[in-house]
Specification:
Layout (H helix, E strand, L loop, with lengths): L6 E8 L1 H4 L7 H11 L2 E9 L3 H14 L2 E5 L10 H9 L3 E3 L1 H10 L7 H4 L3 E3 L3 E3 L8 E4 L2 E4 L3 H8 L13 E8 L2 H14 L4 E9 L2 E10 L2 H18 L2 E5 L1
Parallel strand pairs: 1-2, 1-3, 3-8
Antiparallel strand pairs: 4-5, 6-7, 7-8, 9-11, 9-12, 10-11
Length: 250
């Protein structure tokens, strides 16, 4: 059987409101978890401004580097929603009314409500494929390996399920978490040794503060469960030797 190669992706968050701190990004987590379940590893996340030149340059660089590019934001009805037009320029495509998208939106709104601003959401790169929106009607779109989604988290989440058959991933990325009542400096050296002995496995440590207690979560990630189990055994071994309190593992 032919071994599946690792498939990768990048996420591009488009929006001045994210960079200013007025809005917090939660879309990265939603997309990353979903892609991981399909065997697609997110290798980079960028947050960029609503500036055409920046969007065009970023898309032209990332579409060649990654199997999949996901953008969020900038496909709404206002003047600063310029993602669709910028994507058109990045691919050298005509920016025009997408007939199917126009029809979907026209049917979605009550008579007289489908105004000029809302009609802007039907403007897309020519021949773009639609990403249907079960929440608010306005579709996203796909051009080659670039998937353009809205910035509103609840709407974005509702649209991901419809994309499953459009993503061809590798083996699902598995993870295992060990939560400890300790500090990172206490486990840094032995954890480094485990990582050095298991280079094909990704091991990360993440401090947390919960219920008045400091702790560290060790996360082991791999496409191979046996390798995760092996790392887990090695970590538990040095935890026991150091008599560190184990909070949980899952």
């Amino acid at each position: 059987m032919k071994k599946k190669i690792q498939v990768n992706a990048t996420i591009i968050i488009i929006g001045n409101e994210i960079l200013s701190g007025r809005t917090q990004d939660t879309n990265t987590g939603s997309i990353s978890l979903w892609l991981n379940s399909l065997g697609v590893k997110v290798e980079e996340v960028r947050i960029i401004r609503d500036i055409e030149e920046v969007i065009v340059t970023t898309i032209n660089k990332t579409k060649k580097k990654y199997n999949y590019v996901f953008t969020t934001g900038g496909i709404g009805p206002t003047h600063d929603d310029i993602t669709a037009e910028s994507i058109s320029k990045a691919f050298g495509l005509k920016y025009e009314i997408h007939k199917e998208a126009f029809k979907i939106l026209e049917n979605y709104y009550n008579p007289g409500e489908f105004n000029k601003g809302r009609q802007k959401m039907a403007w897309m790169p020519s021949n773009a494929k639609l990403i249907l929106n079960p929440t608010s009607g306005a579709p996203g779109f796909i051009v080659e390996n670039v998937f353009c989604l809205p910035g509103v988290p609840s709407i974005l989440k509702s649209m991901l399920g419809g994309l499953k058959n459009k993503i061809s991933g590798g083996k699902s990325i598995l993870s295992h978490t060990i939560s400890l009542s300790t500090v990172e400096s206490e486990i840094a050296e032995p954890l480094k040794n485990v990582q050095n002995n298991n280079k094909e496995v990704e091991i990360g440590s993440y401090p947390f503060f919960k219920a008045g207690k400091l702790g560290v979560a060790i996360v082991i990630r791999s496409i191979d469960k046996s390798k995760i189990d092996n790392c887990n055994s090695q970590i538990l071994e040095f935890i026991n030797k150091k008599k560190i309190e184990l909070i949980s593992k899952n």
